[in-house]
């Protein structure tokens, strides 16, 4: 007897502000998906450019696009502000109506098989909780595509594709700067797999360089350092990670900003994520990464997830 086809209902939730420069390219790349979203909720977080008109036209042409307009808060929201806007969109739907959900930015250009491929991999791996492709950005001088060098152990923040049951079980996103790291570590802590792949069919363009959306790359990478301190990362692990990042574009500056963001936050005795069990899990994982290598340490946790029977 033929088995019923798996459901492929997914919802995109997009917080955005002032994306007139990139939004049309993102919209068109979603229109071309081989498996279209069941619903796309776009939360306009107070845009002051032509983004509202762009989105109004999109909603008029596609009945599966829903626009929520928020008042202008006076600046682009980052970190917890983005998550707050995301939840405005998510709270407008019933998650149980969808098998998958995705926090999806409006400054991306994704390949046509992007969501179909992620769904296929979810279907093939029952403990795969969140995943993504890898972001690349065009070099402003040469036009050559450059990888943003995101770790394989994370689904990337600009397009986090989630199995709905996993998202609910891990508690969704923390409304702090390191929300897009905490969630993946919580996945592994709760016996789910979190990952991203650098496969050609799911590589995508990030039209705005990661960490540059607020004021500058320095500000963005400093913010990453603040977030690592909040999450509970140890100083040794942070230092080694920052030195590695110094070898990647923007050379030296990016890694130095990350390290100083972490250290300055520690010196100020800023608060840390208030979950001691999570922070203990994170430190253990990071030590294993230093001793065994990140790939092996992550693989061990993912193997444990595959053996887990809830």
Features:
310 residues; four-stranded mixed β-sheet; globular; Spore Coat Polysaccharide Biosynthesis Protein SpsA, Chain A; seven-stranded mixed β-sheet; alpha/beta; single chain
Structural overview:
The chain is an alpha/beta fold. The protein folds into two domains: 197 residues, Spore Coat Polysaccharide Biosynthesis Protein SpsA, Chain A (Alpha-Beta Complex), CATH 3.90.550.10; 91 residues, no CATH class. Helices cover 43% and strands 16% of the residues. It contains eleven helices and eleven strands. The strands form two sheets. Strands 3-2-1-4-9-6-10 form a seven-stranded mixed β-sheet, sandwiched between helices. The chain has a four-stranded mixed β-sheet with strand order 5-11-7-8. Helix 8 runs antiparallel to helix 9 and helix 10 crosses helix 11. It is globular, with a radius of gyration of 19 Å. The model has no long low-confidence stretch (mean pLDDT 92).
Rounded to the nearest angstrom, the distance between the terminal CA atoms is 28 Å
Tell me about the largest β-sheet. Answer: 7 strands, mixed
**Total beta strands:** 11
The CATH superfamily name of the largest domain is: Spore Coat Polysaccharide Biosynthesis Protein SpsA, Chain A
State the order of secondary-structure elements, H for helix, E for strand. EHEHEHEEHEEEEHHEEHHHHH
Instruction: Identify the overall geometry.
Output: globular
Structural class: alpha/beta
Mean pLDDT across every amino acid position: 92
- Total discrete domains: 2
What is the helix content? 40-55%
The helix count comes to 11
Q: Would you tell me which CATH topology of the largest domain applies?
A: Spore Coat Polysaccharide Biosynthesis Protein SpsA, Chain A
Report the uncertain regions. none
Per CATH, the class of the largest domain reads Alpha Beta
Architecture of the largest domain, CATH level 2? Alpha-Beta Complex
